[in-house]
Inverse folding.
């Protein structure tokens, strides 16, 4: 809050500043996050000799995708200044709808996937309206809607069942020129975000999350922007649902619910401020991968099974703390 | 051994050993699971001494299906020869089981049967399990008796299978089921749910419930002091039996059908047989399911046979039973 | 200079959240009595109040933490309550004389967990939401390490009779204890330096610091209190179920927040009180009971539960418009 | 004929009638001052025009045709742009992003066109590059800029919207002199090109320097409009606040020569080896351009900054500089520069705002509060500072600027401080309130407290202080004692150095 004395900032040539501007866009959030990822991977490689085997790679990435997708969705809501505790339930609902419509037939897939995406959009819209129009506080509002969504999931698929076509599941485990399809999926999600980030709506999401009053006074359509954020998040929830279906090959009316809170952890480890307006989804993607790898490490390190969750929990808290460090320094200097 | 990865591929098709087996358990919120894991560990140690098995890799944590998929993939990456799994979902692990069986790993599901053909279910017959207590209760309250039901979690396969069977019994017996509520297989919830039901259904003859909740339900009925009016289908768990025992003098009678954590021990025996290349006897398998017998049922008559042995166990201890090696061997030809 | 006489112009007092929540509770009772007679009977009301007490006492800490601001929230209350119950039952093991040591140990451990939350939030600047979320994992880990998966012991008879027994007008002692706690907490919030500092810190941390308030200490204490009350609730819950289970109180996490919000405590911090929260807890419990007694499928119940929650929440705790 | 006509504007906030039949009529090509005491409704009237506030009743005509303004976008459609008193910049966005916010140039599919955005931003920002010490930080996050620079960004955002009607609500509040000069140039150009500029400020010199007409509000009503050419400052002030007696005695010093406060080599991230001493009953002023370390010095003395070196002694005993908690306990008081963000608890009652810093003194065992004691203490202050309040239980946010400031000061009086640090205590409060604050400051000094007083208003600085220290870039560069000091000396003292630096 205390300004630097005028004149102390060294003039940056416009061109340089310009390139820096371009850099910001693909800039992965916290250096801390990247560092953590490197460490976690290194340790994992050390503990898991066959880490780079085709199967190990493919299966690991296949495992990451659902959390990665939902974490990106969560990031967008968080950036807009909200939080979505119903994303997991949305994943469940989207997955059961998709699996019911697919009914094992490859032919039904296009329709089913579209419907699944539709579910995400609808849920997002519902959340958006509850939060924006009814002006409820996001945490509790989405906690409430999560009941609605998971209830509906049970209506759609009262008990586990339904199958996805084998092409769908096996394709997901395939690899193109040695690159696992699941990895490609993650890259696609990242690319999707980078494109989104260049879109006006995303700029407005940052503005609203950063300072809603200011954004409103500056002609930003705040309400519409907020709703859009929830809708986009819903779409990523659907993507997460598809990844889960590819992983499981079948429907289950409880499948996604537990992803919600983990997604928030991933967002924070990725360096996005829960206050909103600051951060980005690339970090969250890394955060999600870190979280998944941590539990791998604890397993491959042969921690006695009664102590595993303790170890896991402690490492997660450590990660959360490390992720905060850059912000800490920022605050100090400011 | 399994850890060198060499026989990860040929684990299924008989051969030398010693073998590595993995255990995947996706829920630690209940002591039942702990007993199961302990049982498997003990069984494993015997085989280890015989040099048949050389490593047991346990993946046991509170997680969801996605987490359990990761568990199983980790086990596969550990090059285990066989996986014993207590699945979090009847269907949603099919694809990852496929991954395992494709790599020649023997996969056996316990407690909760799964649909994937490549996997052998070694489970008790949940329907049978439910039928025993349902028939007993129906008999106690007689036709047009009025009961309420406190189930586990709707939509959960075991719950559906059990309730499906029990409902049939009650229909045939002409027992009137006033309402069905979920107790989440959780004593505290079960207790709260039952108290609510007692308040809104003043004249009940009985309550049918599943394991994990009977203790709570007993307390709710006791609090409303209606133990003499309302018949409770109980469970074979020390905590409940203690209450039961105290209430016996005032003529309280109940039933506890054992749902054995030891099913997993039977599974270990069978896995070893499978790893050694034996095949199931055709008449023992039904589809991909092998039913292990329900060890026994505690009722008013035989209560004293079992109570003394378990009296000093913790309340959460579940009466147990499992096949011996030799009994297990009879399942193969 | 002449200022409009506020007293005469004071904005029409909006219905206080406490009154509103109380109204809701009664409305739900009436609905319940209509759809299933006996629902509002004395026994059932006592029984619902008893169950509300557990949620209500956990929500004491939640309220304090939320008031302390800075996105304050404590997701670990459920697990902490469970852990306290597990420790308590193992130590007291059905023996009245061991009740006190059990309580002491359980609450001390709880306090220690709260301290960790507080330190992580204030010194490591981890956002409360994720700090306490991470703590869930740690406590779960501690539970497994401590019990190695097999909970031991049993509630002391005194504890059980406190919760299930009847004292006056056949009301259980639990309710009187709850009332006592409610009074104490309200006094703490309204009539102690700590209470006022808590509100100040929640309202504006910078101002608080520049007014010579020990901000960090205030916040840390808030999280310690939260865990301690959660622990206490866990012990009482143990009295209710008599024997303990590894996931005894986990499901109280989010409801405790909902109770506070329905009671008019602002998630933004700096505004709120316990009376509202207590009634919020009752409202939620009555709603649950009502849904159980309704003749509908579990799926239907879940959906309705969600919709009703939305309605309850929108009756109070709405955010202000941008365009004034 | 008038470009803008606002009539019968009425707005009630809960219990407060902010605007009561206010009106404003102004022509294109003029700079029209909108004046009035704090809380007289200036900002509310402005916000009504820009669509941020929904009036209960209002008729607005632009170019003679009635318009309905349902939100900022409508206002924009009618060519209205504003610089808000409460800045509307987003800290986490860059300067460029802020300037184009809401009107981002896009390519197909709504993808942002960065190049275009940069061009738009450059057009307006380059004008102010001197204000940014030479180079415009297009891609710096606005949050990282100084208040003055943020203000400029806010101004440029408004200019980039190419308004026909430009509202400047206390747009100069946190600007340096040279930044103000640039702004005035721009405003004059706009005026000459036919734009109407509505200019709100508490600085009379600025008003007379820039504006053609002035409309005065008072308690939400329009008192009248006069041409400034043939008006005197006294006339204006009178229109605004009626008769106010200037309390001369407030300026009479009773400083003893006994030095009580000594600052030795104080050095922080922003302060360079600051040393000075204050005598008992003395008011020491801090001058120089704003943002040269005055606020940092006060924060440091209150233990709210990380100290690299140096110490502060009271009667030869070192004061704790490690935390405000200790400082407060040691009898130091700080009235911070940003009332809203650093001084008060907006959503809490006046009672708590007054008690918070001193309640432990009255509490039993430092814990249990007695309602009665707290009320008595608060009432005492309310009367002593004659704070205009409804009741002690009302939120402090319901008070007007001046009254809020008095509460913030009063909270410390209850703690009987030995050292009082005031950071621009009269910023943005009206003349009556100012007079009262002056009186309080002098009273404090007379009661023996050592007072250090920073002000952005050179005149009051000279009138209030026994001595003035001039700061530049974190260091004390000059000391002006009573005799020689004139406003010119002060300005010179600050600028001469800057000249020296640039050599
Ligand atoms: N945000 C608010 N909410 C509700 N009421 C308010 C608010 N702001 C001001 N008021 C009320 O409106 C009254 C008039 O405000 P105003 O600023 O005109 O007082 P004032 O006469 O200017 O006092 P001063 O000269 O000390 O600033 C205030 O005294 C306050 O009681
Ligand atoms: N959002 C609000 N809610 C409630 N009261 C408000 C609000 N905004 C302004 N007021 C009150 O309305 C009256 C007019 O406020 P306004 O900000 O228009 O005065 P002002 O002339 O701009 O004062 P200043 O010179 O301090 O900027 C004041 O009493 C103020 O406290
Ligand atoms: Mg005023
Ligand atoms: Mg104003």
């Amino acid at each position: 809050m205390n300004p630097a004395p005028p004149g102390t900032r060294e003039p940056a040539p416009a061109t340089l500043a310009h390139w820096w501007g371009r850099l910001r866009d693909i800039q992965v959030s916290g250096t801390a996050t990247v560092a953590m990822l490197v460490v976690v991977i290194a340790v994992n490689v050390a503990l898991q000799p066959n880490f780079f085997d085709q199967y190990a790679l493919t299966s690991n990435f296949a495992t990451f995708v659902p959390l990665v997708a939902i974490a990106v969705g969560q990031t967008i809501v968080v950036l807009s200044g909200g939080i979505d505790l119903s994303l997991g339930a949305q994943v469940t609902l989207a997955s059961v709808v998709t699996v019911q419509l697919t009914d094992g037939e490859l032919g039904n897939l296009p329709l089913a996937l579209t419907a699944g995406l539709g579910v995400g959009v609808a849920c997002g819209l519902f959340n958006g309206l509850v939060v924006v129009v009814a002006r409820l506080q996001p945490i509790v509002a989405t906690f409430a809607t999560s009941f609605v969504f998971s209830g509906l999931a049970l209506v759609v698929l009262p008990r586990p069942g339904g199958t996805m076509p084998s092409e769908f599941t096996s394709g997901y485990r395939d690899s193109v020129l040695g690159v696992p399809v699941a990895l490609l999926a993650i890259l696609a999600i990242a690319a999707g975000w980078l494109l989104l980030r260049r879109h006006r709506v995303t700029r407005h999401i940052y503005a609203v999350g950063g300072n809603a009053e200011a954004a409103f006074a500056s002609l930003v359509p705040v309400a519409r922007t907020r709703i859009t954020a929830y809708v986009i998040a819903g779409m990523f929830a659907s993507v997460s649902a598809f990844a889960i279906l590819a992983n499981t090959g079948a429907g289950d009316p409880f499948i996604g619910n537990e992803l919600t809170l983990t997604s928030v952890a991933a967002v924070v480890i990725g360096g996005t401020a829960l206050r909103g307006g600051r951060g980005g989804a690339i970090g969250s993607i890394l955060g999600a991968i870190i979280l998944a790898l941590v539990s791998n490490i604890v397993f491959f390190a042969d921690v006695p099974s009664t102590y595993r969750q303790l170890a896991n929990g402690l490492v997660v808290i450590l990660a959360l703390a490390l992720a905060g460090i850059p912000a800490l320094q920022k605050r100090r200097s400011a | 051994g399994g850890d060198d990865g060499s026989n990860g591929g040929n684990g299924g098709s008989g051969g030398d050993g010693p073998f590595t087996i993995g255990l995947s358990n996706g829920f630690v919120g209940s002591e039942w699971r702990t007993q199961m894991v302990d049982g498997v560990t003990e069984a494993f140690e015997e085989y280890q001494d015989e040099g048949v098995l050389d490593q047991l890799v346990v993946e046991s944590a509170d997680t969801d299906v996605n987490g359990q998929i990761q568990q199983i993939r980790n086990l596969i990456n550990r090059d285990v020869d066989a996986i014993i799994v207590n699945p979090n979902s009847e269907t949603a692990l099919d694809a990852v089981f496929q991954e395992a069986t494709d790599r020649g790993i023997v996969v056996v599901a316990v407690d909760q049967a799964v649909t994937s053909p490549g996997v052998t279910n070694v489970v008790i017959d949940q329907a049978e399990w439910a039928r025993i207590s349902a028939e007993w209760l129906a008999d106690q309250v007689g036709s047009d008796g009025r009961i309420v039901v406190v189930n586990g979690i709707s939509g959960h396969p075991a719950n559906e299978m059990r309730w499906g069977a029990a409902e049939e019994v009650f229909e045939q017996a002409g027992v009137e089921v006033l309402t069905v509520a979920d107790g989440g297989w959780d004593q505290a919830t079960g207790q709260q749910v039952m108290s609510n039901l007692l308040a809104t259904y003043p004249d009940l003859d009985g309550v049918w419930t599943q394991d994990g909740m009977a203790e709570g339900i007993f307390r709710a009925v006791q609090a409303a002091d209606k133990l003499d009016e309302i018949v409770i289908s109980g469970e074979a768990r020390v905590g409940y039996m203690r209450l039961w025992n105290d209430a016996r003098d005032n003529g309280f009678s109940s039933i506890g059908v054992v749902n054995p954590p030891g099913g997993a021990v039977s599974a270990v025996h069978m896995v070893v047989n499978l790893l050694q290349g034996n095949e199931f006897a055709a008449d023992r398998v039904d589809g991909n399911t092998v039913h292990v017998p329900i060890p026994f049922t505690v009722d008013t008559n035989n209560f004293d046979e079992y109570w003394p042995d378990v009296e000093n166990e913790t309340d959460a201890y579940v009466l147990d039973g499992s096949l011996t090696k030799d009994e297990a061997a009879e399942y193969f030809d | 200079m002449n200022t409009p006489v506020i007293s005469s112009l004071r904005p029409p007092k909006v219905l206080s959240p406490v009154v509103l929540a109380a109204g809701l509770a009664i409305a739900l009772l009436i609905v319940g009595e209509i759809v299933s007679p006996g629902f509002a009977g004395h026994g059932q009301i006592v029984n619902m109040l008893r169950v509300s007490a557990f949620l209500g006492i956990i929500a004491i800490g939640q309220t304090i933490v939320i008031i302390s601001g800075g996105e304050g929230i404590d997701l670990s209350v459920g697990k902490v309550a469970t852990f306290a119950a597990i420790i308590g039952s193992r130590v007291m093991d059905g023996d009245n004389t061991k009740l006190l040591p059990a309580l002491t140990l359980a609450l001390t451990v709880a306090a220690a967990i709260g301290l960790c939350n507080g330190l992580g939030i204030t010194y490591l600047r981890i956002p409360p939401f994720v700090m306490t979320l991470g703590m869930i994992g740690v406590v779960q880990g501690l539970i497994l390490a401590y019990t190695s998966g097999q909970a031991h012991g049993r509630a002391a008879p005194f504890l059980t009779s406190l919760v299930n027994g009847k004292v006056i007008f056949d009301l259980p002692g639990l309710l009187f204890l709850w009332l006592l706690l409610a009074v104490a907490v309200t006094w703490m919030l309204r009539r102690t330096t700590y209470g006022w500092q808590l509100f100040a810190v929640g309202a504006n941390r910078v101002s608080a610091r520049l007014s010579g308030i020990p901000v960090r200490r205030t916040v840390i204490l808030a999280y310690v209190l939260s865990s301690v009350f959660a622990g206490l609730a866990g012990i009482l819950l143990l009295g209710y179920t008599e024997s303990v289970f590894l996931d005894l109180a986990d499901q109280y996490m989010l409801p405790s927040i909902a109770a506070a919000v329905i009671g008019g405590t602002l998630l933004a911090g700096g505004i709120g009180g316990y009376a509202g929260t207590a009634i919020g807890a009752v409202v939620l419990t009555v709603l649950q009971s009502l849904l159980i007694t309704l003749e509908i499928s579990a799926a239907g119940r879940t959906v309705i539960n969600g919709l009703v929650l939305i309605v309850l929440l929108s009756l109070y705790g709405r955010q202000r418009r941008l365009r004034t | 004929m008038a470009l803008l006509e606002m009539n019968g504007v009425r707005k009630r906030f809960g219990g407060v009638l902010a605007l009561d039949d206010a009106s404003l009529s102004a022509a294109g090509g003029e700079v029209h001052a909108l004046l009035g005491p704090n809380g007289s409704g200036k900002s509310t009237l402005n916000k009504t025009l820009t669509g941020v506030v929904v009036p209960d009743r209002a008729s607005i005509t632009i170019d003679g045709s009635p318009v309905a303004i349902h939100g900022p976008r409508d206002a924009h459609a009618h060519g209205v742009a504003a610089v808000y008193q409460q800045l509307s910049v987003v800290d986490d966005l860059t300067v460029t992003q802020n300037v184009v916010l809401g009107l981002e140039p896009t390519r197909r599919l709504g993808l942002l066109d960065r190049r275009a955005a940069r061009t738009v931003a450059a057009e307006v920002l380059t004008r102010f590059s001197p204000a940014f010490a030479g180079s415009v930080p297009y891609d710096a996050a606005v949050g990282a800029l100084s208040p003055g620079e943020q203000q400029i960004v806010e101004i440029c955002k408004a200019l980039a919207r190419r308004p026909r009607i430009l509202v400047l609500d206390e747009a100069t509040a946190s600007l340096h002199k040279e930044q103000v000069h640039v702004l005035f140039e721009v405003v004059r150009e706009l005026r000459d090109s036919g734009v109407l500029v509505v200019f709100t400020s508490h600085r009379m010199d600025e008003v007379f320097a820039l504006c053609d007409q002035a409309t005065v509000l008072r308690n939400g009503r329009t008192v009248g409009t006069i041409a400034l050419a043939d008006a005197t400052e006294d006339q204006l002030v009178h229109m605004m606040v009626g008769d106010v007696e200037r309390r001369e005695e407030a300026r009479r010093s009773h400083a003893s020569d006994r030095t009580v406060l000594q600052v030795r080599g104080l050095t922080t991230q922003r302060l360079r080896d600051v040393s000075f001493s204050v005598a008992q009953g003395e008011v020491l002023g801090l001058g120089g351009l704003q943002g040269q370390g005055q606020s940092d010095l006060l924060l440091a003395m209150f233990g709210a900054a990380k100290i690299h070196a140096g110490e502060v002694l009271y009667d030869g005993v070192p004061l704790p500089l490690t935390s405000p908690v200790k400082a407060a306990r040691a009898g130091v008081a700080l009235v911070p520069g940003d009332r809203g963000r650093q001084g008060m608890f907006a959503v809490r009652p006046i009672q708590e705002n007054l008690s918070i810093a001193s309640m432990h003194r009255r509490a039993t065992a430092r814990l249990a509060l007695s309602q009665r004691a707290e009320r008595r203490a608060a009432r005492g202050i309310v009367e002593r500072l004659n704070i205009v309040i409804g009741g002690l239980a009302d939120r402090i946010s319901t008070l007007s600027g001046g009254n809020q400031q008095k509460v913030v000061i009063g909270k410390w009086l209850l703690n009987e401080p030995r050292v009082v640090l005031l950071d621009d205590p009269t910023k943005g409060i009206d003349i009556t309130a100012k007079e009262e604050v002056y009186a309080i400051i002098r009273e404090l000094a007379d009661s023996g407290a050592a007072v250090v007083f920073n002000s952005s208003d050179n005149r009051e600085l000279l009138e209030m202080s026994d001595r003035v220290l001039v700061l530049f870039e974190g260091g004390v560069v000059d000391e002006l004692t009573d005799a020689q000091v004139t406003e010119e000396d002060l300005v010179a003292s600050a600028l001469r150095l800057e000249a020296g630096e640039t050599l």
Observations:
- The domain at 50-333 of chain A is CATH 1.10.3470 (ABC transporter involved in vitamin B12 uptake, BtuC).
- The CA atoms of residues 65 and 156 of chain A lie 24 Å apart.
